[in-house]
What does this fold into?
Amino acid sequence: MSSENGKRLLETDAGGLNFEATELTLGLPGEPRVTSDGGAKLGSKRGFSETVDLKLGDNNREVKLGHSLQEAAKSPVSKTQVVGWPPVRGFAKRGKKSCKYVKVAVDGAPYLRKVDLEIYNSYQQLLTSLEDMFSCFTIRNYLNEKKIEQVNGIEYMPTYEDKDGDWMLVGDVPWQMFVESCKRLRLMKSSEAVGLGLTTGPKYSSTN
Amino acid sequence: MNYFPDEVLEHVFDFITSHKDRNSVSLVCKSWYKIERYSRQRVFIGNCYSISPERLIARFPGLKSLTLKGKPHFADFNLVPHDWGGFVYPWIEALAKSRIGLEELRLKRMVVSDESLELLSKSFVNFKSLVLVSCEGFTTDGLAAIAANCRFLRELDLQENEVDDHRGHWLSCFPESCTSLISLNFACLRGEVNLGALERLVSRSPNLKSLRLNRAVPLDTLQKLLMRAPQLVDLGIGSYVHDPFSEAYNKLKIAIQRCKSIRSLSGFLEVAPHCMSAIYPICGNLTFLNLSYAPGLHGNKLMKLIQHCRKLQRLWILDCIGDKGLGVVALTCKELQELRVFPSDPFEAGNAAVTEEGLVLVSAGCTKLNSLLYFCQQMTNAALITVAKNCPNFIRFRLCILDPIKPDPVTNQPLDEGFGAIVQSCKGLKRLSLSGLLTDQVFLYIGMYAEQLEMLSIAFAADSDKGMLYVLNGCKKLRKLEIRDCPFGDSALLEDVGKYETMRSLWMSSCEVTLGGCKSVAEKMPTLNVEIIDESEQMEFNLDDKQKVDKMYLYRTLVGHRKDAPEYVWIL
It folds into this structure.
């Protein structure tokens, strides 16, 4: 059966690639697949096995047909279709990186950035990283009460939006709690924060 | 030999421990069979449907330890429906009714209900050891029964099971009088545990050597546990997230340093990569390191950790280690025997993965390598040929290219020559898994050279029936053959049906075998169960012999058709 299939496809492959034959359909396993001869094929296999059929009876693997097979195989559609591949148990559990990307907005900056909060262990690390990222700004680092060289004279206060939608000052809660509740970050211009009576610093500095 | 009294022979047989050898001994003559069966304490049953509990009990009245395996291997990859079979209850029920003094039960890929666990816990006074691997069907209530009722429990080892976690109190069910624990592994449980109960349990278990925690056990509890159990040999860390400047971290460093016996480390189910330095003091003694559940650990932090592990014999990691990281392994781990590199994310090709380069580096640096499981982006024939030259001692070689029909990217050729080199060079090869673009040629090589091969896994390979025939004709020691998505049909299947009786099982899914072909096998070989698994209802309406079969699983058995098959399984 298989070698006949291969021959038939070669014949229809007039000058170019027989795309129809390599086309992968998004069918459920077991659903009949309509082939180029119009008939329904029972007990159909999944995407990859269809493409495997194509190279049968053909020793010249370097021929265009082999190439199109490889192209078809590269399509992301075919990957997601195949049940049980890659063959690793509990696959979903292993691969899930625990990562938490949040948007970072800086007042006055034309675009936002994203950071993965999971890669940091403390507020200090996060803020240092943000300073690197937005190198033309300086973040007011009153967590350590140290004065940072101000590049352009503008200081920023790190704030974040929590799960309840409220805007909070960064640094009041333990680090892990912050990571869990933070939805997005905003570096607010200090001048806007004046008059809010923020005289006391936050509870959690980098030494906690 | 017949002039020795039975007791002497029995004493001699005590020294024969391997299952294979004991089986051979029992075949010598009737009197040896009799002596052997009365003295046998440990039995291994690779396919729970090949024999019945009644016959087991009848033959081995002195049974103390039973190992059972249920579902076929491809069940691990969702190719077998959940309720296909492999129920342990009938076994426990039968054993409970008998006089067997069961002490140890080891199950793999079986369905274990809470009722089974409860019955188990109440039926055997001296029950000591429960090991469940890749099982499902039970909840923490079942574990509570084991904890509460098994007074002399030494081992509760749960590996990669699907457990319905009722977040209960199962740990608290260990009575105060239980002080015999040697091994406790609950890493696969997802729910909270009573941390106080855990600490008290560890405190009163002076013989505890192996402890593997789940994700819900935080760092400060870990520190307390280590302070109470510095004699641990095997540790599985649950959560490893903390602030490197905290008091808890300092305490942990001290606690870890006291644990001079730890040889095996795993877990890190949640990890803050900045804090691995606390682990360095014990790295130098490690022989087994499993970081395959820690995707947060990669890059320089991972490499630095590995550089401390000079005595490593087994390493399980994720592919985010990269080829460069494998280079570090090659330079550092000169005692390495087993390497497993798992995929972290197959759909992001090229993102964080390994290639043939990493494998070549490891093969050059780690000459004792004999067992490999390697998920990679690509592989070349040249690399495989080099690996075969560097490491002729492979017993297990499992290669999985994430794109299963990818050819050699340099030459665009199939990987026949590469795998051919592996089977030719590794004369002791027992297990092989293939992937990548492969023709019939690779099977010719396997049939010719893989004389010791016992298990072969094939997917998306071959051109014709010849491939399967080469293997069936050539591999005399073949026990398990599992095939998916290959163009093997009835003529290959029917060529030598007697061969299947020498094997444990054959799995074929999405191949070209027809219903008629399968029926033919079943007719010719009454000692085989030929199962057709088809959930699509096609079988209900169209029993045409020419119809292709979706999944076929056949296995030898002494007890005929099983009675517990679900409705979508047809036993021919």
Observations:
- Residues 489-571 of chain B form one domain.
- Residues 283 and 309 of chain B are 5 Å apart (CA to CA).
- Chain B has 21 helices and 23 strands.
